[in-house]
Please model this.
Amino acid sequence: MTQKVRELGMVIGTLPVGKKNCITDVQGVQVGHVTLDEKLDDVGAYACTGVTAILPHGGNLFQQKVTGASYVLNGFGKTTGLVQVNELGVIEAPIMLTNTFGVPAVTQGTLQYMLNSNQDIGLSTGTINLVVGECNDSYLNSIRACPITPEHALQAVRNASENTAKEGAVGAGKGMICFGYKGGIGSASRIVTLEQDKISYTVGIIVLSNFGHSSEFIAERYNLPNPNSNAAFSPTDGSIIIVLATDAPLSSRQLTRVIKRCGIGLGRTGSHFSHGSGDIVIGFTTAHHIAHHSSQHLETRIQLREDHPLMNHLFTAAAEATEEAILNSLSQAQTTTGRDGHVVEAYSFKK
Model:
């Protein structure tokens, strides 16, 4: 049975964690997976991949958008939608994760889901901006076979719930490799409080980890055994998609400042944002629901003061939760066999 690193006695950082230690600790956030794990033929082709959906809330995301932002640590990635997210500062659809060649199919499936829910899109109102992130799972997955279909994206959204998200080799993380060992989906959360003012906010992280060579993992930082020869050969530098959710009232610009600090947590594990790595952070806050339609020419939002101590606490939360989410993606993953008999071992967290 796999466990989160905290359950194994590893404590990352100083801030308290949420009840689920998961991105779904941010109220209203939902996560859903679809996992493909099957032979495609009798000569080695194998579907070892999937789709993961992150919903900022359970309502109509197009009609009630959330404030969003993205930040590129290293841009060797094939995401969709980030240009408009950063231009307008809103997210209006589920955030979807999959493999590199699955992006078109997942985009199509997510589009179909949103069109089914909003009869006005493309007719009486504008189009919609879809956000899809990816990592390359071609060592374990027969990526050229393009086993992901639009229906898998629809299923992932339908499977989304506020329960503790499944982690490890599930959903988009099924075929991913982290530091030469089995990686994938990992999640963690932090609570930021000022007791004297009775203020409390939550920061949640979910990662799709697919980066790093075994020699880069800073095992001694966690008092773990050093990586050994069981690490898989990785022909590419890999990637990571980090998604941050919070209920703190932040503007898009402030949110960008917070999500930049996710790179600190990534770096603490040993990553140096390699040349061929797509290291991308997407963030949103549930504090603001922004109506698509309004007859008013002004709107009012509350946001945190820039110089308030809470801002520094949010920076800390982003770094700590990212680091722990990456470790959880390793500790929760199981040894996986994929295309052409390739095997990626789970990392042993036994001290």
Notes: The helical segments are 82-88, 103-117, 150-158, 252-260, 262-269, 309-331. The chain has a mean pLDDT of 95. The chain is about 20% helix and 30% strand.
